[in-house]
Write a structure and sequence with these properties.
117 residues; alpha+beta; 60s Ribosomal Protein L30, Chain: A; four-stranded mixed β-sheet; Ribosomal_eL8/eL30/eS12/Gad45
């Protein structure tokens, strides 16, 4: 894939654009440890995980999200796509703003489930 096509594809992905905006606004936690610390502080409104995340990390994040009552959604984008868009390789993301979390839920496919934030 050429650099131009890769950038064009990323610009058309609305979820990645929203995550980039949330990062610039300081409302996004990237990585396992920052997400867990944000959960402990009670800031997290929504946790997003990539489908190629390791099972061990996913299990730990799922248990902590359930303990803190935070909704968790698996997104379609891989860790490589997220890293190209946000500039940091990570498979766990947390939105710390209610507005960004609501918009991210509308952009992700939740298979008809109604998640309340």
């Amino acid at each position: 894939m050429t650099k131009w096509r890769r950038n064009c594809w990323l610009m058309n992905d609305r979820l990645l654009s929203l995550l980039g905006l949330a990062r610039r606004a300081g409302r996004l936690s990237l990585g396992n440890d920052p997400v867990l610390s944000s959960m402990e502080e009670g800031k997290v409104k929504l946790v997003l995980v990539c489908p190629d995340l390791s099972q061990r990390t996913l299990k730990g994040i799922e248990s902590r999200a359930e303990a803190f009552g935070v909704p968790l959604v698996t997104i379609e984008q891989t860790m490589d796509q997220v890293s190209m868009s946000l500039g940091k390789r990570c498979g766990v993301l947390a939105l710390n703003d209610e507005g960004f979390a609501r918009k991210a839920l509308t952009l992700t496919k939740t298979n008809g489930e109604d998640l309340i934030i």
